[in-house]
Amino acid sequence: MAEKTIDLKVPGTRNRVPVRTTGQWRSRFLGLAGARELKKSCGVWVKRCRSINTFGFDQPVDVVFLSADGVVTKVVAGMKPWRMSSCPDARTVLELRAGLASRLHLAPGVEMGLLA
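Above: the chain sequence. Below: its structure as tokens.
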């Protein structure tokens, strides 16, 4: 699957957030670390993922773990560089600009509609 940008609909609002999907192994591995220029995208959706790291990042990110049916299972706000986090119940992960998860009111139990 090729990498592309989708508009993520934020539940309970009219807001849409541009999120880059990962396709090839390299883009999955790099996540936001590989997105030097984030003007076109606010985050990365990593499919088929339960664990994430911020190795090589130069700034914190928000990490949102989602179940197979698109429900938020865990949020790690402001995850600092060179850290790891996982969620056994997750099937997919959103890496977002730091602070964005809070501004969008993302919390466990929120239905995002992103299917693994």
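The beta strands are 5-9, 16-21, 43-47, 51-53, 61-66, 72-79, 84-86, 92-97.
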